[in-house]
Structures are given as C-alpha cells and as structure tokens.
Amino acid sequence: MNKIVSQEASTKKAIALAAIDAAAPTLIEASENIHDNVEYFFKEFKAQRWLCDVLKGAGFEVEEGLGSLQTAFRGRIKSKKPGPTIAFLSEFDGMEPYGHSCGHNVGGPASIGAAIGLASVIDEIGGEVISLGTPGEEGGGGKNILHREGFFEGIDAMMLIYPGKDNIAHSRALVGTGVSFEYFGQAAHGAARPEWGINALDAMMLAFNGIAYLRQQIPSDVRIHYMITKGGERANVIPDHTSARLTVRANLNATLDNVIPRIDACIVGAQTMTGTRLERKWREGPRNRPLLSNYTMAMAADRNMQEIGMKTRPRDELSGAWGGDTSNVSWFVPTIQPQIAMTDVPPHSHEFHDAAKGPAAQAALVNAAKTLAMTGIDLIMDKELLAAVKAEFKAESAIPR
Fold first, then answer.
1. What domain count does the chain have?
2. How far is CA 321 from CA 128, 174, 334, in A?
3. Are residues 275 and 210 in the same domain?
4. Residue 114 sits in a domain of what CATH number?
5. Would you list the DSSP string of 145-193?
6. For the whole model, what pTM was predicted?
7. Given pLDDT bands bounded at 50, 70 and 90, which one contains residue 3?
C-alpha cells in the first residue's frame, strides 16, 4: 500500500472503529441474549431476529431467510462507487448440551459489528459490504447448503472470527470423516451361563483398545475421537448389542487415506476375536475439507490486531485445530477465520459457555469486530493487496489437500 493510500486508509479505519464503539452496547446486548437463549442448528429464530434487528438499525437492507434455510439472513449496503464485495459471516447456533461452548454468540455479533464498521465508510471507498448469517454450523452444515444455493456468488473475500485462547490470524481446520459401527453378540445370564454369551461390549472395548495403541504409530496431526452410544442393557446380562461413533481428522486427505484402513482393521479385528457380528458404515460423500486460510489476508488481519493493541502469535500445527463448514466454502471464496483471545478454558465445554458472557467476552467481541472491519477496508482500498489475495487463492485452491 503506498503512503498516500495508507494514510487515507488509517483515516477510514478510525471512522470504522468509532462506528463499532457506538454500536457496541447493541452488539453486546444481542450477544448476551443469544447466550442466554441457546438455540440449536436451523432453529435459531430468536438469534436471527436479534442480529437482523441490529443490522436494520444500522441501515442495512436485510433478507430474513435465504433459500431453504429459514434462519439464514443477508444484510447488504452497496456504495455508488465500484469496488469489491466483502462478506462477514455470522454463526449463532449452540451445541447441545454444551450451549455456546464454541462462542458463536460472540463471533456472530462480532461479524455484524465488522459489517457496521465497514458500512460506515463504504460510500467513500466503494464496493459492497455483506453480512451473511450462516446457521447450523454445529451439525447442520448451513454454509454448505447456502453455497449450493448460490449465496456465496459474487463475494470477493469473506471472513469470520472465533473466540479462544490466543490471537491467531492464520488459523487452521482439519479434514475429517467418521464411521458408525455396531457389534451383535448373544445375550446370556452373566452369572449362571456366561459361557453361552457372545459379548458385544468386549468387542467394542477391544476395538477401542486397538485404536488407542494405534495412536502411538500415526502422524501427530491425526485426531481420533469416539463415543459409545450403546453399551448394553443390564449389568448382569452379557451385552448382545453395542454401538459407537468415531471421527478421525488430519491436516491432509492423504494422511487420512493411510490411517483409515488401520482404524478399520482394529474395528474388524475385534469382531474376529470375539465372534460377534459387525455392521459398520463410513461416512458417505466428500469429506470435510481443511480450511484454506488465505495467508495474505490473514497477515493483513494480524497487522490490524497488533494495531489495536493485541499480541498475536502464529498457529500451532499440533493444537488449536477444529473443523466446520467454513472449511468447505473456503475453497470457493478467499477466506480467513482468525481466533481472538477470550479465555483459557477449553472450547466445547460448559466452562467455555460460561466464559462467553461477561467483560472478557465483550472485549473479545469488540476487538474481533474491529479486526475484521479494518481488514475489509484494507482489501477495498489496497488494490495490490486484494490482487495478491486472489492470486494466492487461485494457486492454493488448485492444489489437492
């Protein structure tokens, strides 16, 4: 960015930051309302209303309900001057039974705040700002549906943000798939005639023990997590039916291709050892893709985090990863999904839900909104930056992961 454009951008950023500060009480109120009224995927009607009301109050043209998703929304303000279209994505669903343990009640309103900040200068710098409400991240895949129905078309760059432990602009998310499996045995009295039984719970435990030992010999980026959904009926009866679900994730598809047969061998081997019958079904269709975080855009966000006083750090390749539907759509539009510092407690926990309300959550919301809005201004005002973002995206999206 040349010096004159840089100085002008600083002026516009100051205006945007002031607009976000002015909107902060309304954004925080929406955040805490969403926190106290947890709604799950595709049923986020209250959250949709609260966020859309904030957008309408800020002068956005708002559509409530997009395509087949009733709780999706889109707010837009377009300048009379030409320029790129920048979108901020809002998530606002909770995860049963852990509430807002991913902080969507913070990240969703933060994206609204970013849209308000960018909108405050959009007439002067050109382009269009879109606030896209994307429901059903926790299990519904709302972004996948919105993409199939055309709601990401025409967007030049998009972003959203997650609260967490650190300020990390260039975040990651893993490729993943899963399997559901069941063992069928023979029930018998556990004391009188245990030898007549075929123990389906033994098969399940042997499968999990095999997978636990397998963990020592697989790449460090692989994550395997599982749960027993049925372990039997009564403690004094040899279990004749057990079931479980397993998810496996890694940085790359090639890694999964090598690991999945080894996991499957543990599941099949347990059947052989116990004489049970196995039924299993690996997830059909394409895997969740890794997040294609745009490094060029992320570094602009990193600079903006530092500009407003936040200490940033690089991502850690062995931790701090998650999965989600942003990953899939990041292969169609240049995307970043930074993390903003809020709490040291682990996500996907009741403690994280509790931390997503209060002074620290409020500060994270405002900082997140400012980071994204400033990055949006950079993308519009610095043509070389946007060109570099798009060039990186074109090159990286052509490489299979």
1. 2
2. 31, 7, 19
3. yes
4. 3.40.630.10
5. HHHHTTTTTT-SEEE--EEESS-BSS--B-EEEEEEEEEE-B--BTTT-
6. 0.94
7. low
